[in-house]
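To: structure subgroup
Subject: Chain for Friday's discussion

All,

I'm putting the inputs and outputs inline so they're searchable in the archive.
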Amino acid sequence: MMTVTGSGSFRPDSALYRPPTHFLRGSLGRFATGVAVVTFDAAEDDGSLRRQGITVNSFTSVSMEPPLVLVSIQRSVRSHDLLAGRPFAINVLGAEQQDVALHFAGRPVVDPVWIEGRWAPRLAGALSHFVCTPWATYDGGDHTLFLGEVQEFDYRSGDALGFVHGQFCTIPEPSLGHEALF
């Protein structure tokens, strides 16, 4: 078992040494998550707006009343500062949208199809989406936790794009959703 201070059995001067964060990332990577893209309009220096997005797997619901969601964004990415104080959309990706995830992770392979929104732009074909207005931000170490109040949302049927062990995977849609039970 690793501890916070542990880094395996190699000394820091060894070529085989890995810092504790390497093992922490490996431990966290065992938790399967969905994949989403946070989209928003970013203000340019000349005052114009430009579509922006960032792929995330750190997204969660916070509250049903009021409807709040949270997304965690690393401070070192350019999108971090552009997102502050702006409405945003969280686009949960379907299993067939791996190219969209890669595009917004800095490896463009496909041009995204945008849908205009009252508060923020969103992506066409997402498995579900949540359009949010800013609610609060919190310091999260090397990340900022952005809470948004959900203004619009919707979903479609289909398998979800997942991420585990540093790789994409498919999370199959159950044959009967919970909505059908009520």
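Points worth raising on Friday:
The first strand starts at residue 33 and ends at 34.
DSSP finds three helices and twelve strands in the chain.

D.
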